[in-house]
Amino acid sequence: QVQLVESGPGLVNTSQTLSLTCTVSGGSITTNSYCWTWILQPPGKGLEWMGGICYGGNTAVNPSLKSRTSISRDTSKNQFTLHLSSVTPEDTAVYFCARVPVGNTWLMYDYRGQGTQVTVSS
Question: Which candidate, 36, 76, 115, 120, has a CA 20 to 30 Å from the CA of 45?
Fold first, then answer.
């Protein structure tokens, strides 16, 4: 059973960089055939794909967030991390990490964490 757990600050100030880490258990982030992704859900809105990193280390980022978003990983800890710079109150959302089988679109995940609420204060 694959489990994903998000961790990071629940409150950040405007203009700071938000860093969230996803710790994966029950499977390796370098296992062939999977990518790992970050998704957000603003209050009252649907899921929005942010970016992802695949088993070989290549990354992809939503073009609307490309200038502010990067994703890295630590294979020794089986973790991957989201960095979102220059945050504003519009970045307030629940952030999820998820596993996506290669070949699926980024929101067609098979496992997802419970999510972590992040509030950006003005």
Answer: 36
Task: Determine the residue type at 111.
Answer: Y
Contact 5, 115 (CB under 8 A): no
How confident is the model over 74-120, as pLDDT tens digits?
999 999 999 999 999 999 999 999 999 999 999 999 999 999 999 99
Query: Distance between CA atoms of 71 and 21, rounded to whole angstroms?
Result: 10
Alpha-carbon dihedral 63, 64, 70, 75, rounded to 10 degrees = -70
Task: Give the strand pairing for 59-61 and 48-54.
Answer: antiparallel
- Rounded distance, CA 42 to CA 118, Å? 10
Element (H, E) at 95: strand 93-101
Backbone angles phi, psi at 65, to 5 degrees: -120, 5
Q: How far is 108 from 36, CA to CA, in rounded Å?
A: 11
